[in-house]
Every structure is written in structure tokens, then in C-alpha cells.
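We emphasize that the prediction below concerns an isolated chain of 201 residues; any contacts that depend on oligomerization or on bound cofactors are therefore not represented. The input was used exactly as deposited, without trimming of termini.
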Amino acid sequence: MIYDSLETIPYKIFMRIVEDISLIHLLSSNKEEDKETLQTIWDSLFEEYNTLSPEKEEMKLLQLEKEIAFIECKHKGIAVALTALDFEYNQELVDILLSYGYKLSKETYYEDLKRIERESSALEMKAKNIKKRLPKKDANSVSVRVTTDRIFAFYTAVLGIDFDYNNVSVTKVLALKEQVDNKLKSIEDQMKKNKSTNSKK
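Result of the prediction step, given as a C-alpha cell string:
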């Protein structure tokens, strides 16, 4: 089975895909599926999520950071493979370069290595260009990563309900978040009203 809608994909799995690189999490079993199909499904899910979620900018930022990390990792992997292959032929490393779309043959082996090195430098430039789209970080800011379980625990405390943290769907989480925001706003409005009433006495 493939998680192909926000109604079926568990929120934790959705966020795991956002935070790492592998789309294999879209598969709920060991069933094999081509990368192009999975990428198409993921692009559709992510676009729908951005349409429904009020936290669009945060998700876009996370996606950019993910893309940068993937490109930099790919560039470093290619560089390591090229260095090793310059000393000794290794079929496994050659297969990695071929999987990235590079052409490498034994007839023009060293010429191909030099060409791949030049072509792969474009990855470094691509990562730098994407980094320019990231907002500048405040030198005094502190990044705090809140776990999904802690967020869900907060939701249950505010709403007085409980649910399966591991299997709750993305659409359900979005609905819960909206309920939490509304309830917190209601409490805040009531506090302001009480404060105003007390100040008049």
C-alpha cells in the first residue's frame, strides 16, 4: 500500500519524509515502487498540505533545508567516489555515479572522471543559490526542536481528548491544531474580558 492522500498517511510518517530524504516511507509495506511515481505522489501531498496548513512558510523553509542537505550530501558522495576511482576501479562506486546520470566507460575512464568532477561542481553552486533563499538567522536566536509526541501531548491536554499518536492522519492533526488554536484564542479573549471588567471596578 502507498500512502497517497493526507487522509491516510500518518502525520509522523509525513513529517519523517519532510525531515529526511527517503520517500520509501510512503510505502506501508515492502512493495517496490519506482522513484518517479513516489516523487509525484509526494509532491502532490506536500502541495496539498501547504494549501491546508497555516504554517506554510515554516514547511517551505524545512523543505529548502532538506533540499540543500540532499544536494550537499550528493556532492560530497560524488567527490569521494571520484577520488577513490582515480586510484582504483570499483564497480560499486561506478554504479553510484551511473545512478546519478553520469556516463562512465572503461575506454575513456580518466577523461570521464575529470568531466564528472567538472559537472558535479554545479551541485555546489545549486546548493549556494538555494541557501540565498533562506532567511538570515539571528545570531542570538536559539533553535529548539520540539518532538511530535510533545506537541500531541499538548493537544490532548488542551482539548481533553486522546488519540493514537503513531497513526493519526495529517488531516486529523490539522483539524486538531485548528481546534487548539481556537480554544487558546477563546481563553485569551476571556482573560482580556475579565481583566477589562476587573479594571472598571
